[in-house]
Amino acid sequence: MIDLHYWPTPNGHKVTLFLEETGLEYRLFPVNIGKGEQFDPDFLKIAPNNRMPAIVDHAPAGGGDPISLFESGAILLYLAEKSGRFIAGDPVGRAETLQWLFWQMGGLGPMAGQNHHFRNYAPEKLPYAITRYVNETNRLYGVLNRRLADRGFVAGEEYSIADMAIYPWIVPHEAQGQSLEDFPHVKRWFDTIAARPATTRAYELGKKVNPTPGIRSEEERKILFGQTAAATEERKAG
């Protein structure tokens, strides 16, 4: 049994995509990041970066004590190795998968995240910041489009954890100022993944957990965007 501490954000969706594809047994523990539940002391024991998703695997391969992990990329890699699925077994295929997993973690996710913030959430619209991150997101879409020009999925012809990591960050493309019509290979890939039954189940689950996504109050804005070391300690203590 796997405990999944989750909120339906792009990083949260990565893990439900994997779990729904494999059928691994899991229990869902919502972490409402708008209410500050990511600062709960019990949650911080498994996710010291006060971010979700995080998991606790109560039946790790080989037995032993439960294993807890935070960071969505690390979770995907762990689950792929545990199940023997969605990562190639040969060295070349494994390397292809990992480099695109880390491309998402180090590039697409951070850049698209800043894009979302400055376009949609920042109280002051800063043209330089908006242009900077919209353009960089566009560049990364172009990288992905070229990669997909001659293969079905990012690591080859098989769906992998690299696709699961990237897809949720492409779902909100309109909010990022991007059109999939400009990236035909990305669009074909995107539509293929969207049609998978496990993808439908994962996103329906997200809607049940948080039927009204978005930032709806100034308090939520402070919780999500006002985090400093001192503020984190105050919330942890409070």
TrEMBL record:
Signal peptide: none annotated. The lineage of its organism: Bacteria, Pseudomonadati, Pseudomonadota, Alphaproteobacteria, Sphingomonadales. PANTHER family: DISULFIDE-BOND OXIDOREDUCTASE YFCG (PTHR44051:SF19), GLUTATHIONE S-TRANSFERASE-RELATED (PTHR44051). It comes from the Bacteria. Belongs to the GST superfamily. Residues 90-214 form the GST C-terminal domain. InterPro entries: Glutathione-S-Trfase_C-like, Glutathione-S-Trfase_C_sf, Glutathione_S-Trfase, Glutathione_S-Trfase_N, GST_C, Thioredoxin-like_sf. Residues 1-87 form the GST N-terminal domain. Pfam families: GST_C, GST_N. This is Thiol:disulfide oxidoreductase.
